[in-house]
Queue: 2 jobs
Job 1
Amino acid sequence: MARIAIIGLGLIGGSLGLALKQSRLRDVELVGYSRSRKTREKARRAGAIDTIAPDPASAVRDAAIVIIATPILTIRQMMEEIAPALPQDCTVTDVGSTKADVMRWAEEILPQHVSFVGGHPMAGKEQTGIDAAEAGLFEGKTYCIVPSPTARETAVNSVVGLAGLVKAVPVYMDAEEHDSYVAAVSHLPLVVSTALFSLARDSLAWPEMSQLASSGFRDVTRLASGSPEMSHDICRTNRENLVHWLNRMAQELLKYRDLIQGGDDEELLKAFARIQLERDVFIARGAQRREERAAATEPGISITDLLVGDWAGRRAREMMKGLEQESRRKDKRNGDHGRKR
Amino acid sequence: MARIAIIGLGLIGGSLGLALKQSRLRDVELVGYSRSRKTREKARRAGAIDTIAPDPASAVRDAAIVIIATPILTIRQMMEEIAPALPQDCTVTDVGSTKADVMRWAEEILPQHVSFVGGHPMAGKEQTGIDAAEAGLFEGKTYCIVPSPTARETAVNSVVGLAGLVKAVPVYMDAEEHDSYVAAVSHLPLVVSTALFSLARDSLAWPEMSQLASSGFRDVTRLASGSPEMSHDICRTNRENLVHWLNRMAQELLKYRDLIQGGDDEELLKAFARIQLERDVFIARGAQRREERAAATEPGISITDLLVGDWAGRRAREMMKGLEQESRRKDKRNGDHGRKR
């Protein structure tokens, strides 16, 4: 029996626990810790963990894998608390929305005898906390894997294996790539959604306007209802990239303004038609990937397989190959259009 | 037996037909016309209309109420086609997303013996066409009623009655108010959604980025998948208002950029927390209104009731009173905050 420790039992930590319990992983004990006693107990009752640890250090003692699933700005402090208690050769990972700061903290704080492999499952919803946790949260979603330079290969394979066990699709990248990509497709949408809501809400005509706000407005502003702490932490740890993309988004809006103001109807229609088509392709490809992932069956695996990592490494290599092939096919298809406006 | 004519049998026209058939309206024949023979036949098979008309003029002959549910830029031409055939005292309405142009066309083109009452149900989805039509599309949604200055009171009441029959909530406003409000809460979100998708899609890193794009990106860019023709028509008929709001949105994004760049963490956290709270209030109020509307039962009414309009007038006055009271309560609650940044 080996131990996996989950520190932080909110939406992501709780869902990871539930997903691992429903996975084919055998002979493992999930130990959980949350600052809130209520959350810890809820997580155990919900079956997200087997055992409650009274503090972070006890949670990681004897753990083969430690998953830090706290808010980003708490990760640093959590690393400090667990560092002295981490067993030899332990694999430590996290689920934070940005990676450059986290990788720096790991290098600074964690002992050299452990391997840190940053992680970021691209899954979420606006509800937070253990009550919103669900085993299927990661199904078919991309799981970013950001190994530290000193991480052992088996440790990297273990985290890739974890991602596979919760039915996510692991994708390797470095911290800078990760932060610049998520700035565009995750953090920019968050701020755009928030700014759109605040602009309308702060208008003097809001009492009348809000009666006309329908499902379109609701969907586009959905991310404005996310956790303020998480939004704040994201802005703070990914500031430069986000500022870059906010500038570009403001420019993009003014491009559309000029197009609308310019009065070239055919050009306007073509712009909307191109984007509709591109988005349909994007949505269809995502659905296909999720279906393929859901259909894939994994053999029952033991914690030893996971820790030795051969199984996961093999599986990961197959997956990466598939993704690379898909990416090449895509590049080929898109070679002659799509990158100009 | 009286006639209601529906010209244009797409998502909105088809859904209106289905909703009216499921309503408590008695003794009425729904006559439908669509340019596409396939659509006309689908609409009849789906039960959205009783009878197919071979052309717009035949559809409106003997009709007590005519609903023009074509794309906005086709409305003008449709008015020209039906004008000579419209019976004395007929009520004509539309469902276009902008109202100022439509009201102008009606004044210019329709004969003086009919009453034009502009309409705009605030309901939609990104799928279009008769296949996407559903009877419940309007349930609890706001239905804007924009009477022309010369419309008879009974005609206004009839359109208010129609809105009630499809379980929408009728709200009176003038065309300029309507167009400025929908510019902010419907057309701006459409362009923001499209611009966000095009910005990411046109990035050189899109092949990698798109793998990290999760449900947040998908939701915020959903409107980019709407009908390009409709988006184009909206931009063309609501140009000035939309340009105004695009400028304000670009400024709002730069405000957030400054807030994020500025490094005052508490202010940033407070901004996100305020918007989260405000949006929760907005969502809860919408859900409450929909529930109230769904729970309201209507007596079975005859087409005569609808046309004489007393029933609808009474019902509408009750509804408007309720909405005004709610609006006053809201203003009172929000009196000391919320409109400043």
Job 2
Amino acid sequence: MAPFVLTSVLLSLVAVYLVSKLGGEVSKRLGLPPVLGELVGGVVVGVSALHFLVFPEAGATASDSLLMGILQVLGNLDNESIQHIFQSQSEVVSVLAELGVIILLFEIGLESDLRELGKVGYQAAIVAVVGVVAPFALGTAGLVLLFHTPVIPAIFAGAALTATSIGITSKVLSELGYLKSTEGQIIVGAAVMDDVLGIIVLAVVASLAKTGEIDLLNVLYLILSASGFLIGAILLGKFFNSSFVAIAEKLQTRGALLIPAFTFALVMAVIANLIHLEAILGAFAAGLVLDETDKRKELDQQVMPIADILVPIFFVTVGAKADLGVLNPAIPENREGLIIAAFLITVAIVGKVITGWTVFGQPNINRLAIGVGMIPRGEVGLVFAGIGSASGVLDKPLEAAIIVMVILTTFLAPPLLQFALKRNENATPPDDGGSPIGLDSVPPTELVAIKD
Amino acid sequence: MAPFVLTSVLLSLVAVYLVSKLGGEVSKRLGLPPVLGELVGGVVVGVSALHFLVFPEAGATASDSLLMGILQVLGNLDNESIQHIFQSQSEVVSVLAELGVIILLFEIGLESDLRELGKVGYQAAIVAVVGVVAPFALGTAGLVLLFHTPVIPAIFAGAALTATSIGITSKVLSELGYLKSTEGQIIVGAAVMDDVLGIIVLAVVASLAKTGEIDLLNVLYLILSASGFLIGAILLGKFFNSSFVAIAEKLQTRGALLIPAFTFALVMAVIANLIHLEAILGAFAAGLVLDETDKRKELDQQVMPIADILVPIFFVTVGAKADLGVLNPAIPENREGLIIAAFLITVAIVGKVITGWTVFGQPNINRLAIGVGMIPRGEVGLVFAGIGSASGVLDKPLEAAIIVMVILTTFLAPPLLQFALKRNENATPPDDGGSPIGLDSVPPTELVAIKD
């Protein structure tokens, strides 16, 4: 390892913690979800403002990075070595961010209840399917009819509209203490299925963009492997549960409970990854399975500090990578994109909000909150934009429009979801003290310490 | 980030946790310190055996890595992309290992008591100085007189003999519950000072190897900056303590206590790094400072799970990088090195063990344990060997001899230290339940949960 790689990672982490804590606290005091502040904090250090934390995927080089500039002066480094450090730092921070969202979904899985999730399974499935079909159809048709976009790029943009960021939506739910409410469980269930559907949609449009045809075999493979994985994880989980507790009780060295649990989450993440699903789905499934054990509470408490240090890296990175420059109407070439974006955003919101009214058999449910909970496109939407851009299918204005849509839905969703949840007091009451994730102001270990 | 980088890191972590838990548990059941098992687990997956986890610093390429071979088959990847993944995976795992030893030293700092450490400061200083001078003088003189080694390589080998691995020795102390004993505090204090002295020695021999002269200005700068840093940290700490508690109490979002503490540790690590000290010294100083606050216990409890998942990465990596091939006497070219190694090991042990008898004013102290606690050379010794090898000063047999010395002192020290501590019951009794690090079989959160 080059000597300054560690320094650059440590400095990146310091920046992440400073802006995420500052942003989170300000957001909280403004009555908004803390995660919004973490995203905004990321924007402040990222490509849109300070350029302290930038990433090579978006075309940045070491000379675009304020952090690298500082290191170059401090360490008296030449351009070649700083370029190498920049690459390594970006890779390490990106992996840490991925570990962050993996641990977040593991924690969300631990907080979710498999039986509760099962009860709302059908409703969640309908929400997910409508939330994919409606924005896709509306978006694609609208672009072709209103903007005379060619069919293939229009399909691509429509596909980008289908995504839901499970990370952002579940984080807001847990921050507000609504994760275990019926609405919360429907949203989480639908977001998970949406993630699977999104991967299938992505595979379809990617092969369409590459070859002009749909690779039906691949689609079938994805559907089968995804369903197989989720069902398999839950069935295997029933069996693994008891062996997990037996293993944890036999171990005599430190981390007796945490290490087997964490290893299980990582193994599930790897399996999901290898069958072309997202790693976070594996971690979520692992959390769901371990939630069934009687070690749940203790495990929750040990996972929390790890989530506390890793999850902010994910949200700050999402913010840092969002280039708000495309939002500036003063730049003439942005204008065409912004008009398309206005259309895409309308579809993005309407196409998801209506899903709340597809929920049957729950007369008193907060339908608006469910629909709003599906709005944020987050990192999944950016993946679509990235693949579209790389394949050359999207022209500049359409690509910019997709990015604007992703950014705005991501940043608007946390306050909108909070508004929707708090406005309608017909909703199931928020979680009680049983959920450590919900207790934002007082960490449970502090509660325990007080009881002690 | 290339798509398979995350998979490769996740698989590396799974391997790390499997072998470290397995090794630790077996070691514990054999009555040996768990960390020895983690090191041996690292050897099993590393360059000496399975080649699952290998690192490019030692000259390995992707084709030497079993993990990369597996990934190449699973992902159907070409040689160029697998080489890129290998580089990224090695960088990420190395940084995670560094974060592991940083958090370990932060935890050791939190467990250490500044006042207790101050009480044994003089004794620790003498142990550190004798532990540097004796092995250096004996080793250099012996190589020149007995083996007719030229002076500069002999000085280099002598310098490699001065190191003490604070990570390994403090981990064993905490595992056995002796960290807070007088012996434990003398060893930790001396190991910290030894680290500072080691860096100065390293700077001297490196400039000697490069230019044939000693850069006195640089040496003076290092001595001043090191003393300035440690004294400054402690003075600033007194002031930071109260502001730290005030900040933590004002924060309302998750990680209110942990994130400011962790950020402080990282900032201190960066500062240490930038003034050419080791990052771990900064983390240790940060831990010492925060140990003075009344949030100590709570912080301890939250740092523990983070240490549980990061620290094993460090020890497994140390084991994985140790090439035991140089120990094989069946290979003729190893023999000359092994004879020199036998001499170096004798000096390495004798030169450190005698330091126990320099401790004054403590009639009932376990002198053998203190000396033995200074034996492991660990990663610091390997750094010397690496720099010597890179500068071309060392011939093959001498380089191999240094590596053998480092490996054997590292692997022998944990069982020897346990033997020395348990044999002599004159020693201060081991830590009571106050030290969570010492409680190996029952994690404190489990205790809390039972009380609940």
